[in-house]
Amino acid sequence: MKKTITLMLILTMSALANAQLQNTDFEQWQNDPSDPNFPNKPNGWIITDGFSEAPHCIYPPATDAQNGDYALTLGIWYHYVKDAAKQTVPIDYRPSALKGYYKYTDNIIQGNSGPVNDVAQVNIYLTKWNVALSQNDTIGKGTINLNESIDYSSFTCPVTYTSNETPDNVSVYLDCTRIKRAGETENLIRMEGNGSYFTVDNITLEQSTVGLEEFTVNNIEIYPNPARDKVTISNFTGQAELYDITGKLVMSKSLTEDKTITTEQLQKGIYTIRLTDKTNTSYSKLIKD
Q1: Which of 94-108, 118-132, 222-236, 245-259 has the lowest mean pLDDT?
Q2: d(CA 238, CA 223)
């Protein structure tokens, strides 16, 4: 039986998003960014050593910006100190994704059985203060891993929500290396010097201009939902992307004449479908049985 899914119309509003996160183009620095010998850090961001919340400084900003004059470059020194950048600010809406531009170079490190490719990571967390328990509850999050890129490439880190509530804080965390990363089980080190240079620029939050108001987009139908072997997306032509609960892209397909997506290889759980055509981006949930 067909099940009509009501989709939320998503439009990018960079100006509104930038009013929340600070210094997302990394143009503002605590000290003169033209002095290459003076420790520095970007305004609005906490730079840590990657292993604790201890404040940390980095050397001058990157001048090969994606747009503007400066960008942020993070890196690892041997396996003792790595740069990580974090920002937490108030928010009063539900962003659908974190977007930006990055380069990632010199990212070969030593693993248990030889050299391996290092991987940078972008994280976003949406929290809501729980009055009853006096704690912040995470109601939405996204994580995306980024591989080597000599030139600037765009990234999109979708947010998956576990609650219908509106968050009151958003945190962004930028990590330049797998070394000493939470959840990393392999013994990883950098054999010599600096490396895993993760350069980031022009971050934005993607959000809906209509808040939580929903629209039925072109009578799109997604069925069956829950799905087992395959799912059909009718009345839609464009790009379909499927993300798991961590925000990882697990499948992408251009839907033209063939409107089906094979799902038999997916693990059971909740997924987010992102549908993009020439004018709109829409999101819906898919349950895999």
Answers
A1: 245-259
A2: 17
Q: Which of 83, 92, 84, 95 is nearest to 124 (CA)?
A: 95
Token pair belonging to 112: 């248990």
Environment class of 42 (CB within 10 Å of its CB; exposed 0-12, middle 13-18, buried 19+): buried
User: Could you count the other beta carbons within 10 Å of the beta carbon of residue 261?
Assistant: 20
Instruction: Give the containing element (helix H, strand E) for 111.
Output: strand 108-111
Number of neighbours of residue 57 by Cβ within 10 angstroms: 12
C-beta atoms surrounding 1 within 10 Å: 4
Phi, psi of 46 (to 5 degrees): -100, 125
- Average pLDDT, whole number, for the chain? 84
Tell me how far apart the alpha carbons of residues 180 and 188 are, in angstroms, rounded to a whole number.
Answer: 8
Report which residue type is found at 209.
Answer: T
**Which of the two residues, 109 and 214, has the higher pLDDT score?**
109
Residues of the chain with pLDDT > 90, as a percent, come to 49
Residues 6+ apart with CB under 8 A from 157: 97, 98, 99, 122, 123, 124, 142, 143, 144, 247
Amino acid at site 48: T
What pTM does this model have? 0.68
Cα distance between residue 63 and residue 77, in whole Å: 21
Please work out, in degrees rounded to the nearest 5, the angle formed at the alpha carbon of residue 146 by the alpha carbons of 158 and 229: 55
Q: Is pLDDT of 68 > 80?
A: yes
